[in-house]
Amino acid sequence: MSGNTGTVPKTALVISAHAADFVWRCGGAIALHAQLGYNVTVVCLSFGERGESAKLWKQAGMTLERVKDARRAEAERAAEAFGVHDLVCMDLGDYPLELSRDDKNALVDVIRKVQPRFMLSHSQYDPYNTDHMYATQVALECRMIAQAWGHNPGEKVLGAPQLYLFEPHQTEQMGWKPDTFLDITPVWDKKRAAIECMEGQEHLWEYYTRVAINRANHFKRNSGGQSGGRDCKYAEGFQSIFPRTVDEL
Predict the structure, then answer these.
(1) Using CB atoms within 10 A of its CB, is residue 208 exposed (0-12), middle (13-18) or buried (19+)?
(2) % helix / strand / coil in the chain, to the nearest 5?
């Protein structure tokens, strides 16, 4: 997840099924790359207002619009903590998340506008939350369309950005196998601050702190371990979809 410097801004794109997903699963990557000079755009396909806001729904007199407003505010605060360049809330509904052809074309427009050097989204399988795997199916479809010269001819087409799949909630059930570990220690304070913006899902704060600590152990093990490996306190894991093109290993 790195790019060459130049006059063209370095960019990245996150496609998040619900308003909090980008915080738990790739917030460190967002904050770190923002710090490295990337313009990071985050697309929230929904606010997770029906299925991921139980704490809010337990309050008396709660309404759908009030839940959405609360989750939007949380996402905006988290995005600010990370240094997100642009937060796009498509408000497409959740449980289930469903996109029309027009919705997908709108996402293609975002992809082409951003021209990301890499993309981030969910695992390809998630039996606990089909919104998540649907979001990645949509991300792959829209990435493909954005590469098509015959789609809205005359627009700048997309190159071939890597799609990294961020960590799901129960990795053993999702078939998710990380091949990339990112040291997020320098921006951990930002991620923890953003996590604490997610008041509707307070039960996940410590869980995702532990995940980051565990992945730091894996980072150290794979960077050389006890024989020259560099230290790391917090990390995130990712699974890449596409082969990498290299000139040397």
Answers:
(1) buried
(2) 45, 15, 45
Could you give phi then psi for residue 15, rounded to 5 degrees? Answer: -115, 110
Q: How many Cβ atoms are within 10 Å of 29's Cβ, its own excluded?
A: 27
Instruction: State how far the Cα of 93 lies from the Cα of 177, in Å rounded to an integer.
Output: 29
**Contact residues for 111 (Cβ-Cβ < 8 A; gap 6+):** 13, 119, 142, 143, 146, 158
What is the pLDDT, as a whole number, of residue 68?
A: 96
User: Could you give the C-alpha distances from 217 to 19, 188, 242, in angstroms and in order?
Assistant: 28, 15, 25
If you count DSSP H runs as helices and E runs as strands, how many of each does the chain have, helices first? Answer: 8, 7
What pLDDT is stored for residue 201 in this prediction?
A: 83
Instruction: Give average pLDDT by consecutive 10-residue segment, the chain, 249 residues.
Output: 67 97 97 98 97 93 96 95 98 98 98 98 97 98 98 98 97 96 97 90 92 96 85 97 95
Q: Which residue in 113, 84, 100, 102 sits closest to 16, CA to CA?
A: 84
